[in-house]
From TrEMBL:
Organism of derivation: Massilia violaceinigra
Gene3D superfamilies: Tetratricopeptide repeat domain
Keyword Membrane belongs to the record: yes
TM ranges: 289-311
Recorded superkingdom: Bacteria
Protein name in UniProt: Tetratricopeptide repeat protein
InterPro entries tied to this protein: TPR-like_helical_dom_sf, TPR_rpt
Length: 607
């Protein structure tokens, strides 16, 4: 004979007479001796009396169908049921166990520690000590004892399918078992014990006992976490044969048949085959989600395709999408309540058919469920109108064509609208001067001071927008130094859009546009700068150059005069302009400087 090996440690098992089982000589693990089923045709030792009739079996299945929203809504109404009660041969195992266990329990606590990080201090990177917190788990060993009793059922026949075996694990009526008498199963089929029980259909009783003991042992767990569970259990087994009453209900629905097995002592305890899905519920949910999903996707795509994602996320558009999701929830809620009412009404009608008490509270008459749900239809119509209006707004909303943003810049800030590039034409009409430059040409310095005291208001930016704008300004300045005008324009445009009060970004943007040859764009950018800060000297100087190169001599001359008027050192400013005019080949800006700095003609003295 082959030696029996312990499954826990691999040592040899020996028979322990006091335990009536096999015990390991090394780790003392007890392995029960598998019980032998009664021979074929032999009666069981105990029987659980059948206390549910055929009509109660059928009604238990109908009640289960009415509460299951995953099956068709009309299944409880249209299913045709046929019932057959029988006794199943089983082996009842009374298991008493004593277990010793060890484990580690973890208790969480928060502790502070000092970490060193790199920080910018006075323009230099330094290692700075920072206090942080973290969660630490203190592990503590623990041990203990556990003892208890289990009752397990093993099927000892060969006719019950695998789908019905979970019912045996949920039978709590084993305490109702009484000594076997043939009178208890009069008129009810009884399945004989099989000489070779179909044990492959379910895990062995020993395996299930180990799992149940493990679950009971882990109930002693403490702390926030547990690990390193180990236990040794000694068990004693008392096995008897018992007949268990079960009702098999055949469900005929939609041209197909499904089986249900019901506890013979409690018709609320049952298991079934895989039942047909509720396609009506699924189709209703899919149709309802079309409108909000379409609106959400359209809004997100519009934002990603636009040059300003946040600009597309307007309040009214977000409100429209939110309203669609709320309408969907309302629509599904109405459908759920109507389906529930239909099921309960069908169950109440069929309860009378099977002579069972109607469910309480009694449902209202189901006449209102006849015909379409007008409210749901109205919700669908309103959702369609909202989607059409939103799509119309997204399609017809005027927006500049998108400009691709490099990945490094896109991670730092949302995509901004591209700067329009104007093609310089050989002949351009003169643009009218703004009021402040008209006052400069008229030498009306009092009016100039009045206009300077009325700068254009700027929108207050958020902290994150201001910090991102400052970061992009630094990138733009680096690009200008590297003579990468296009990249500088992109960074500075985003910086200006995020924070309109970033005057340095506006000034550098004008310089970058001039470097790219877009003089009209430079005039517009510098004009916005001077509207917000009329006393910006560098802005007036750059405006004079941009206007001159854009063939707007009047604006160039007036800007130079404004520069000289605001300069704290007019002589030094004049000298710098003269040097600029004299350097290199003559251009329109040099001509403007020459016109403005041309000495006035001396008046002849009268004799």
């Amino acid at each position: 004979m082959d030696p029996l090996i312990c499954q826990a440690c691999g040592a040899q098992l020996t028979y322990a007479a006091n335990l009536q089982a096999l015990q390991c000589d090394f780790c003392e693990t007890v392995t029960p001796i598998p019980p032998v089923a009664p021979a074929s045709g032999k009666s069981g030792q105990r029987i659980i009396p059948l206390s549910v009739d055929n009509k109660a079996f059928a009604f238990g299945v109908l009640r289960s169908l009415s509460l299951n929203h995953e099956v068709p809504d009309d299944m409880a109404e249209r299913a045709v049921l046929s019932v057959k009660a029988s006794y199943l041969p089983c082996l009842a195992h009374d298991v008493a166990y004593t277990a010793s266990w060890t484990a580690s329990f973890g208790y969480s606590r928060t502790e502070s520690y000092v970490d060193h990080v790199n920080r910018q201090v006075d323009g230099q990177s330094q290692r700075v000590a920072v206090t942080k917190t973290r969660t630490v788990i203190d592990w503590r060993p623990a041990s203990g004892q556990d003892a208890g009793k289990l009752i397990l059922l093993d099927y000892a026949g060969n006719k019950l399918p695998a789908a019905a075996l979970p019912l045996l694990d949920r039978l709590y009526c084993i305490i109702l078992a009484i000594p076997y008498k043939s009178a208890y199963h009069s008129g009810v089929d009884i399945e004989p014990y099989s000489p070779t029980p179909n044990a492959a259909l379910q895990p062995s009783a020993a395996q299930r006992a180990d799992e149940e003991i493990g679950a009971q042992v882990k109930r002693h767990g403490q702390g926030d976490r547990q690990r390193d569970w180990h236990w040794n259990a000694s068990t004693s087994w008392a096995t008897s044969s018992v007949y268990v009453p079960v009702g098999q209900v055949l469900i005929d629905y939609g041209g197909k048949q499904y089986n249900a097995w019901v506890d013979g002592t409690n018709n609320a305890n049952l298991v079934t085959d895989a039942l047909p899905p509720n396609k009506g519920k699924g189709n209703h949910m899919v149709r309802g989600m079309i409108a909000p999903v379409l609106a959400t996707a359209a809004l997100l795509l519009a934002g990603m395709a636009s040059t300003s994602f946040l600009h597309e996320m307007k309040m009214e558009r977000l409100a429209a999408v939110g309203a669609l999701w709320l309408l969907l929830i309302w629509r599904d809620s109405r459908r759920f309540k109507r389906a529930q009412h239909t099921r309960q009404s069908a169950l109440a009608r069929r309860a009378l058919e099977y002579g069972q008490p109607a469910p309480t509270p009694a449902p209202e008459p189901a006449s209102r469920d006849n015909g379409p749900d007008l409210v749901s239809l109205a919700i669908s119509l309103v959702s369609t109108v909202i989607v059409c209006a939103l799509l119309y707004k997204l399609v017809n909303d005027p927006a500049a064509p998108p400009t691709p943003v490099p990945a490094a810049r896109a991670a730092a800030a949302p995509v901004a609208a591209p700067v329009a590039v104007h093609v310089n034409q050989p002949f351009k009409p003169l643009q009218p001067l703004p009021p402040i430059l008209l006052a400069v040409d008229a030498r009306d310095w009092k009016k100039v001071r009045t206009l300077m005291a009325q700068p254009a208001p700027q929108k207050q930016a958020l902290d994150i927008e201001m910090s991102t704008s400052a970061s992009l300004l630094e990138d733009g300045i680096k690009d200008l130094r590297n003579k990468q005008s296009d990249m500088a324009i992109l960074s500075l445009s985003v910086a200006v859009q995020l924070n309109g009060a970033n005057l340095e970004a506006r000034s550098k943007l004008g310089i970058a546009l001039m470097g790219a040859g877009d003089y009209e764009g430079a005039r517009e950018a510098l004009g916005d700068l001077l509207d917000a800060a009329p006393d910006h000297l560098e802005g007036w100087r750059n405006m004079a150059e941009a206007a001159a190169l854009a063939e707007q001599p009047d604006q160039a001359d007036a800007s130079l005069r404004m520069l000289l008027h605001l300069s704290k050192n007019p002589k030094e400013t004049t000298r710098e302009l003269q040097q600029r005019a004299a350097a290199g080949e003559p251009d329109r800006f040099s001509e403007a400087v020459a016109r403005v700095l041309k000495p006035a003609a001396k008046k002849k003295k009268r004799v």
